[in-house]
Specification:
The protein is an alpha/beta fold and 454 residues long. The chain contains 13 helices and 19 strands. The chain starts with 6 loop residues before the first strand and ends with a helix.
């Protein structure tokens, strides 16, 4: 079904990036911000400022929709901590909600592959939030790459200093399993490099010196070989004083000052010219038959509209993805490919050797990532509404245990006066709760069958 305008969206996660997403959804005339979901109490104030609802969890939001007979949202923007992306996305997909999942798509390629399999089964469309693909500087650079001729090399940097409160408000950013500049920030640039030049074949990486007392890395220097033969270097750090990074140079993030005089955070070297970003200057000798160092180079400034915000472009594209008008500009496989590059970086650091990047096609899904772990029936001992559930359990409990080879815990929780419900707990804590109120015995059986399909 094609979603009508405005497209109803929720934002899950109200940390550093969530409120920005929520503001863009609120301001966009073709989208409606249905709710913000985050367990932190101060999220309520953010929601009030945006004239929307706040819920502490997805299950509470779903309960609200069911009790008010409201349709579920058309889409959700997932911007929770990195290691929860697959868990949260899987829970939303179980309700048929289309997804924009912030990068990285998952903690591991295998986990992300399991999300791809699951969302495909649920007919849920997924856009991965590598939003810099929508940045006007990047889009214009891609359109003008041909002016460089045959591209030979690329040089890039992402260097700045994150303040201590960046880590204080989200301690997970200090952990090696989810934080660090490689997984949080370098993954953006590796995605952009593949977006511009194609798949990366091989990476060699050396860690930069650390100055913080954290588990997580503070950056690395890389040499990169692309499958098409292009070679490059890239250096990244979040603990140096420098404006040579995407945010400072482009003004993309309103929280980070824009230094519009910065140039050369990316330099693309080709047989006919060199393109510098974000100043969008091409150095060339197109007026000459053969290039030579004995003659001066001409400078050409590429003029284009820089006013379009990447988050707005990404949001408009997400609406088109939801409506079935476009395929995701950055799909789960693209997100997995960026993760595989990060994996290669980490393996290279561990071994001290260059590492070939694994092909996305070779990645097997981690079936455990979304596996059913437990069923819980909640009912009243004496309530009339719970009679069909009690009958269903009396008649079917033994066969349910047999069908699962007695490996699946099936719990019965009784409490006076509560409405009957069924909760399924999946791997990594994801839970799906269905109300059984008002259902007869056959309806309870169908509700169980539906939840087992997830």
């Amino acid at each position: 079904m094609i979603a009508p305008y405005p497209v109803k969206l929720i934002v899950v996660g109200a940390g550093l990036i969530g409120p920005r997403h929520a503001q863009h959804v609120h301001d966009n005339p073709i989208t409606e911000l249905m709710a913000i979901i985050d367990p932190q109490p101060d999220t309520k104030q953010i929601a009030q400022q945006l004239h929307t609802l706040h819920f502490p969890s997805i299950s509470k939001f779903i309960e609200y929709c069911n009790s008010h007979k409201l349709p579920y949202p058309d889409g959700a923007i997932v911007c929770t901590p990195n290691h929860t992306h697959v868990k949260v996305a899987g829970e939303l997909a179980s309700y048929g909600i289309h997804l924009l999942v912030e990068k990285p798509i998952g903690s591991t390629p295998e986990e992300a592959k399991s999300l791809k399999v699951y969302t495909s089964l649920k007919n849920v469309r997924v856009l991965v939030g590598h939003h810099r693909r929508f940045n006007p500087y990047i889009m214009e650079a891609k359109r003008n790459l041909h002016k460089c001729g045959e591209i030979v090399g690329v040089q890039g940097s992402w260097m700045l200093c994150k303040p201590q409160d960046y880590f204080d408000v989200a301690p997970w950013r200090t952990k090696s399993c989810a934080g660090g500049v490689l997984l949080i920030n370098l993954v953006h640039d590796l995605d952009l490099l593949q977006f511009l030049f194609g798949p990366i074949h091989r990476i060699y990486a050396e860690l930069l010196p650390k100055r913080r007392d954290h588990e997580a890395d503070e950056g690395a220097a890389l040499t990169i070989k692309f499958k098409n033969g292009i070679s490059g270097t890239f250096i990244c750090s979040d603990n140096v004083t420098s404006p040579f990074n995407f945010e400072n140079a482009t003004g993309e993030n309103p929280m980070i000052p824009h230094h519009n005089e910065i140039n050369g955070i990316y330099r693309i070297f080709g047989s006919k010219g060199t393109l510098s970003l974000p100043d969008m200057t091409i150095f060339h000798q197109s007026h000459m038959k053969n290039s030579t160092w004995l003659e001066p180079l001409l400078q050409e400034q590429i003029e284009f509209d820089v006013a379009k915000l990447p988050f707005d472009s990404q949001l408009n594209h997400f609406v088109d993805v939801i409506r079935g008008n476009e395929d995701p500009y950055c799909c789960i496989d693209d997100g997995i490919s960026a993760l595989l590059c990060i994996d290669a970086v980490l393996k290279s650091i561990d071994t001290g050797m260059p590492v070939i990047v694994e092909d996305v096609k070779n990645i097997k899904s981690n079936d455990e990532a979304l596996t059913l772990k437990e069923l819980r029936f909640h009912l009243s001992q004496t309530g009339e509404a719970s009679i069909p559930v009690r009958k269903f359990l009396t008649n079917n409990y033994a066969s349910l245990k047999t069908q699962s080879n007695y490996k699946l815990p099936i719990l019965i929780r009784e409490s006076f006066g509560i409405p009957p419900s069924l909760t399924a707990r999946f791997e990594k804590g994801r839970e799906v709760k269905n109300s059984l109120d008002g259902l007869d015995e056959a309806g309870v059986a169908k509700a169980l069958a539906d939840i087992l399909k997830q």
